């Protein structure tokens, strides 16, 4: 990929992202009430996405061979505990990821 192609690709990604972010302000201006279904999706999607990410992250875990999924289990438990304790998604996900990397690289 040439430099010009990379610049065009990045520009297209930026333009697409900005359009999808700004369109909601035109579709749902401040003086107009958001439909109940859209409000429901705003509350349900984050939980659904996190659930899909957990399933995707754990789908290839082999529990019948060493280390029997222990790094994954320990990391999921630690992520859950940190999230319930601090209620910070960035801290819990970041901490769980770092812990998992340490467990996989140094311990198991």
Could you walk me through the main structural features you see in this protein, from its secondary elements to its overall organization?
The structure is a single chain. The protein is mainly alpha-helical. The protein has a domain at 33-107. Helix content is 78%, strand content 0%. The longest helix has 25 residues, at 3-27. The protein is extended, with a radius of gyration of 20 Å. The mean pLDDT is 93.
Give a short synopsis of this structure.
The chain has 108 residues and is mostly helical.
The proportion of residues in beta strands is under 5%
Please state the CA-atom Rg, rounded to the nearest Å: 20 Å
| Number of H/I helices | 4
Helical percentage? over 70%
Q: Tell me which oligomeric state these chains represent.
A: single chain
Q: What characteristic shape results from the CA principal axes?
A: extended
InterPro entries: Brnchd-chn_aa_trnsp_AzlD
Protein name: AzlD domain-containing protein
Transmembrane segments: 6-28, 40-58, 64-82, 89-107
Pfam family, one: AzlD
Topology of this protein?
Blueprint: H1 3-27, H2 36-58, H3 70-86, H4 89-107
Keywords: Membrane, Transmembrane, Transmembrane helix
Transmembrane segments: 6-28, 40-58, 64-82, 89-107
Protein name: AzlD domain-containing protein
């Amino acid at each position: 990929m040439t430099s010009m192609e990379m610049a065009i690709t990045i520009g297209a990604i930026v333009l697409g992202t900005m359009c999808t972010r700004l369109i909601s302000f035109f579709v749902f201006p401040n003086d107009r009430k958001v439909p109940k279904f859209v409000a429901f999706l705003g509350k349900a999607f984050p939980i659904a996405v996190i659930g899909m990410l957990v399933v995707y992250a754990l789908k290839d875990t082999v529990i019948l061979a060493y280390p029997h999924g222990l790094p994954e289990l320990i990391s999921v438990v630690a992520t859950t505990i940190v999230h319930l304790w601090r209620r910070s998604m960035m801290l819990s996900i970041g901490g769980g990821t770092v812990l998992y990397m340490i467990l996989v690289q140094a311990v198991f």
